């Protein structure tokens, strides 16, 4: 049995969101401020630059987190590598090498509370079932998920154009039913959600942070010919085809 005082019941803490095994909290003020940092802390608070943390209730579901993300845990919480054999280790190492994600993501089981490292980025909680049971992520967004979800490597539909467009060839895909936790530089309130029904979305730049696994993702010329692309001034664009959803930041600097 454990008791936690002066944490989420502190008047400096605000609960932003809750879904599945996860809670997102935000520190309303930075109280650990010295005179030399006071001006910076004041303007950070005015511009919504605040520390946020994810709390994981392991009693509700085992969770898988990004390597190095754990800050502290209390209760009967056990950490494992989540590796289920040599084949699984090889697959995770290969996936990590092509997506840029950590190869081994620790899995926490048992009963108790796991608290992740604070971050100034915005935390997004996503129910993967609402994305048709499959979602693909841009690089660097994954923070944690319920361990019922599985990870896979998703390759671009056309390698040559991806190279020409300066994009990576692979992305991290998440499948199954469960809650996914992402870190984003763009807040949820500014993200644009586009739903396609057998249609096409073209974006100039990597502003899409996540999209349904059912969509075909390619990098193509903006016009039908090289001359047309040159005339439009756009060049290559990211193209999403099919039926599904795309989560997009309003400006390119708004993504991780």
Question: What order do the helices and strands come in, and which of them pair?
Answer:
Elements: E1 13-19, E2 22-27, H1 38-46, E3 52-57, E4 63-65, E5 70-80, H2 86-99, E6 107-116, E7 122-127, E8 134-137, E9 142-146, E10 150-155, H3 159-164, E11 170-175, E12 179-184, E13 192-203, E14 208-212, E15 216-221, H4 226-232, E16 236-248
Antiparallel strand pairs: 1-2, 2-3, 3-6, 4-6, 4-9, 5-6, 7-12, 8-11, 8-14, 9-12, 10-11, 13-16, 14-16, 15-16
List unreliable stretches of 5+ residues: 85-90, 93-99, 226-233
Q: Kindly name the structural category.
A: mainly beta
Total DSSP E strands: 16
Number of helices: 4
Outline the biggest β-sheet: 9 strands, antiparallel
The name of the CATH architecture of the domain at 13-187 is: 4-Layer Sandwich
In the CATH scheme, the class of the domain at 13-187 would be Alpha Beta
Distance between the termini: 39 Å
Mean pLDDT: 85
SSE series? EEHEEEHEEEEEHEEEEEHE
Using the coordinates shown, work out and report the CATH topology of the domain at 13-187: Double-stranded beta-helix
The percent range for strand residues is 35-45%
C-alpha Rg, in Å?
20 Å
Shape: globular
Helix content: 10-25%
Concise synopsis of the structure shown:
The chain has a domain at 13-187: 4-Layer Sandwich (Double-stranded beta-helix), CATH 3.60.160. 14% of the residues lie in helices and 44% in strands. The protein has helices at residues 38-46, 86-99, 159-164, 226-232; strands at residues 13-19, 22-27, 52-57, 63-65, 70-80, 107-116, 122-127, 134-137, 142-146, 150-155, 170-175, 179-184, 192-203, 208-212, 216-221, 236-248.
